[in-house]
Amino acid sequence: MNTSKVTIQDIQQAKMDGRKLTMMTAYDYPFGMIADAAGVDIVLVGDSLGMVVMGLEGTVEVTMAQMIHHIKAVVRGCKKALIVGDMPFMSYNTSIREAIVNAGRLMKEGGCDVVKLEGGVDFAATVQAIVKAGIPVQGHIGLTPQTASALGGFKMQGRDVTAAKQIIDDAKALEAAGAFSLVVEAVPAPLGELIAQSVTIPVIGIGAGNKVDGQVLVTHDMIGLFDKFVPKFVKRYANIKPAIVDALTTFKDEVSNGTFPGPEHSFSMPDEALENLKKQLK
Ligand code: KIV
């Protein structure tokens, strides 16, 4: 297995070579290690943690402190994949200065390699300033979950010609601003293909069809750990929740009926020491 750290240059070379990129989310140390074991190129510490880890309705409430906490844990486990730290809602929206400061915090305090933020043309100046400050940026366009309510909910984007053209303009503006790659979420597959053809940077799709340069999914969705709702674009590669419930039910039963812990999971004590102890307790 190749154990060297994935770089931005590797990610960009993949598009030139026609090699499809893989990106998954992780929010803690074990999944950071699992990402490396699976050999994915990119690990996203996504603000989707608001929903799949914290049980919130969306991503809006996620804070900088929570992002830094989770990024740190992933960084401890993941040594190979490129680690993306998601900028939470309102950490880059109020001013360019604040955006640079917060992007810097995710890198300096969290330890991620790059940051991701949501928005197109309107955020090109912000992306440009963060990149100029020395922090690589991945853009996120199409369905942008932090502003889903303004977009009419968690719905497919780019339905008509004007909306589709706007997303292509967003992609071009972010490329011109210096973004090293883009996530494109919930757009028609032919539009995903057109976006990937419109820019030279890698376009990683989530619900954007298979003619983009790579794919990302929320890990808890694709392994069946989060089942409150399953978007159309999610493929279930495993269903681990029932296996975990089975294991924990067996643990509960064995504790209740006294079969756990058995001798193989218990520490022994020399007979003589035990007898002595008992005498002293009399
Ligand atoms: O936060 C996240 O997990 C994301 C993915 C949906 C790309 O932004």
In summary, what is this structure?
Helices cover 43% and strands 13% of the residues. With 282 residues, it is an alpha/beta fold.
Please, could you describe this protein's structure?
The chain has helices at about 10-15, 30-40, 50, 65-75, 95-110, 125-130, 160-175, 190-200, 220, 240-255, 270-280, and strands spanning about 20-25, 40-45, 80-85, 115-120, 135-140, 180-185, 205, 215. It has about 280 residues and is an alpha/beta fold. Helix 5 (about 95-110) crosses helix 6 (about 125-130). About 45% of the residues lie in helices and about 15% in strands. The chain has an eight-stranded parallel barrel, surrounded by seven helices. It is elongated, with a radius of gyration of 23 Å. 3-methyl-2-oxobutanoic acid binds near residues 47, 206 and 216.
Characteristics:
8 strands, alpha/beta, single chain, eight-stranded parallel barrel, binds 3-methyl-2-oxobutanoic acid, elongated, 282 residues
How are the SSEs placed, and which strands pair?
Blueprint: H1 8-17, E1 21-25, H2 29-38, E2 42-45, H3 49-52, H4 64-77, E3 82-86, H5 96-110, E4 114-118, H6 124-132, E5 137-142, H7 161-177, E6 181-185, H8 189-198, E7 203-206, E8 214-217, H9 219-222, H10 240-256, H11 271-281
Parallel strand pairs: 1-2, 1-8, 2-3, 3-4, 4-5, 5-6, 6-7, 7-8
Helix pairs in contact: 2-4, 4-5, 5-6, 6-7, 7-8
Bound molecules: 3-methyl-2-oxobutanoic acid.
3-methyl-2-oxobutanoic acid binds next to strand 6.
